Amino acid sequence: MAPVWQANVFTIFPEAFPGSLGVSLCGKALLQGIWKLNLIDLKKFPAKSDRIDFPPYGGGAGMVLATQVFADAFTQLDDMERNMRRFYFSPRGRQLTHKDLLELSRFDGISMLCGRYEGVDQRILDLYEMEEISLGDFVLLGGEVAAMAIIEGCVRLLPNIVGDETSLLEDSFHDNLLEHDHYTKPEQYQGWSVPEVLLSGNHKEIAQFRLNQSKQLTMRRRPDLWGKYVSEKMLRTNDHEKKGKT
């Protein structure tokens, strides 16, 4: 039996969880045991002075999580859990992508350290080989919300979570394209109409319409993604031509 996908979260606010992870498909899957949430409360591992954070050396505002606090908390993981990839949420980290989540969802799980205040001692990141990651060019008060976002992004990609798994193939970023528009009843609303092709019943034309729309949206809104889409398509075409000549 394959191991259950697990998220280990180191935080000083375990009461923030499961939060949005406890509702909808994600919450249902949690109750069914399809995935597991393991919360490690850093407040339970204070240093000798009964504190978990201290002012930074060299001065400056805020408090910094002490290395020994995380070291003691890390011992709560078993051998398999200690070998999972480890992440720390930071504005200076690499921004995660959809492809990253696809990769992470195929592992046994991940471990995440949620910082607060001024952050954590750099030696935690160095000694435990933490990968610094970010959701975007903005700053939050802590990593808990970011952890929930990453977990939800991974869980929805696990088998048997989404009812129609083919819908995952139409997600924005799946093929470096943004997702097309969606419409439902009524056909007319305040002078705005549903595109006729979507009412035609011609699935081939609908698929082509949606693909064209995805391309146009991506070109206008995310030229960086459009560049990746074009490059990868050219590579696939060249590989196909090379195979055809052999």
Could you explain the architecture of this structure?
The protein is of the alpha/beta class and 246 residues long. Helix 4 crosses helix 6. The chain is elongated. Helix content is 36%, strand content 18%. The chain contains eight helices and ten strands. Helix 4 links the parallel strand 5 (85-95) and strand 6. The chain folds into two domains: 5-155, 3-Layer(aba) Sandwich (Alpha/beta knot); 172-245, Trp Operon Repressor, Chain A. It has a five-stranded parallel sheet. It has a three-stranded mixed sheet with strand order 3-4-7.
Describe how the helices and strands are arranged:
Layout (H helix, E strand, L loop, with lengths): L4 E7 L12 H8 L3 E7 L11 E2 L9 E2 L1 H8 L4 H4 L2 E11 L2 H8 L3 E5 L5 E2 L1 H6 L3 E4 L9 H12 L32 E2 L2 E2 L9 H19 L1 H23 L1
Parallel strand pairs: 1-2, 1-6, 4-7, 5-6, 5-8
Antiparallel strand pairs: 3-4, 9-10
Keywords:
246 residues, alpha/beta, Alpha/beta knot, Trp Operon Repressor, Chain A, 8 helices, 10 strands
Sheet with most strands: strand arrangement: 2-1-6-5-8
What is the distance, rounded to the nearest whole angstrom, between the alpha carbons of the first and last residues? 42 Å
Indicate the CATH architecture of the largest domain.
3-Layer(aba) Sandwich
Number of helices: 8
**Low-confidence sequence ranges:** none
Helix and strand composition category? alpha/beta
CATH topology title of the largest domain: Alpha/beta knot
Strand content: 15-25%
Tell me the number of strands: 10
Q: Could you spell the SSE succession in H and E letters?
A: EHEEEHHEHEEHEHEEHH
Output the CATH class name of the largest domain: Alpha Beta
Q: Which of globular, elongated, flat, extended, rod-shaped describes the shape?
A: elongated
* Helix residue percentage: 25-40%
Radius of gyration, taken over Cα atoms and rounded to an integer in Å: 23 Å
